[in-house]
Prior knowledge:
Rossmann fold
Amino acid sequence: MNLGGTEKALLALLNELDLTNNEVTILLLEQKGELLDQIPHGVTVEALKGFEKMRPIIFNSPRSYALNDFRKGNVLNAVKTLIRYTKVKTGNSWHYNYIEALKHYPIRYKTDIAVAYAGPSDFISYIILNNVDAKKKFQWIHFDITKMISNTKFGNRFYPYFDKIFCVSKNARDTFVKTFPQFESKTEVFENIVSENLIRQQAETGESFTDDFKGIRILTLGRLSEEKGQRMIPAVVKRLKDEGLDFRWYLIGEGKLRANLEEQIKKLGIENELILLGLKINPYPYLKDCDLYVQTSLHEGYCLTIHEAKIFKKPVVTTAVLSAPNLIENQGDGLIIAISIDGIYSGVRELITNKARREKFERFIKKPKLKSSEKIESLIAK
């Protein structure tokens, strides 16, 4: 339960469920993460038993295991592993590793509805299909599937066994259906639930900006990783600084890209203009108090943070990810720009320098209208 959009969307879904009349169990690969203690009371939480031993089998090539067994003199094991390696290579399908990893894992759950929620994830989908006894099985797609998978063989083979496939935005569904046209009739849009009241309550508690800066505050939320696109931000900040513009850009999140960002910040001399705030369990006071929200992602199925920024009527600049047109009316209540340094620079510069444009966006921001209770009822009734 890391601090991410998929996990936050799951929490919102759980908070909408009627837990007095429904029994809900979450099966995690690992029982950890910043949002673990935010799972609602009444939800049973379990971790996949033996996952630490499964992990290398799932993700590593069988060839390395076979060579290691040969070195140790475990010839029989090595031969069995080489057979699995041959199946993986010739069949171009990784699911043979899942069979090996789960061969001693029994069907432990009997339920009405089983959901492969963190999708697309082939291993999680395989668990739901093969290790859960359920009347209905649903697959959830949170991302642009063309950016997440390069081999469609698993989906072609196993997605037929799901009763429904839910995509988190219209564009995500369109892309999914283009990739898997045979599943069009069972694929629907189920947008992420966002609790506006809860987010507004959280925005009134906790810390926000502590400096005395009076210029334009720009905010970007998300883990510091390649797919979120923050690597492009320092170059944009340098160009804006060299023009003498009065702004500070704050990043909330942690991740593998932090060291690279710190190096770029120092090299470009932009320590005062680009601030890494680290991980914030409650980022909403910052979102409420910023002047401009910028999303720099390379791909998104449904950008939850854009939805959250619109709750506070913040002008948004977002890269042209898959779900951007489902969330932003370009030139109407925000800007959709090219996924590039030049694109981000142009969009951010326009809104820093054009106060009237920012104010216009703020006046005309359209918050998505979600009838979450009806959506939940329709899901359970499927």
